[in-house]
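go over both lines:
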Amino acid sequence: DQSPEQAIALLRIAVHPRQYLEATDTILRELNELTIEEAATAIQELHGPKRYIRGMGNSMFLSVSLTTIDDRRKVVTHALLDCGCTGSSIDAGFVRANGLNMHKLA
């Protein structure tokens, strides 16, 4: 239990030099609302340099970790996020290659 000023000073020591200005009262309040594990992850992200996601037009590629609902398997891959898409879609070859179970939604 320390003053907010002391906590911000400690947070500024932990963050990446280019993210120094992000160590604010608001961030401190948000960190205090997280679990210990979530706060540690957030501080670790602040410790590194900022990362940017590049996209073109209405879409971008992201690294993702997918977890199946039925057997809780994890698959790490790259995904295309397309805000112009009008429905859900997944590549049939990806489904076969990863042995994913499919169920028709409608």
Remarks:
- DSSP finds four helices and three strands in the chain.
- Strands lie at 55-56, 59-67, 74-82.
- The mean pLDDT is 81.
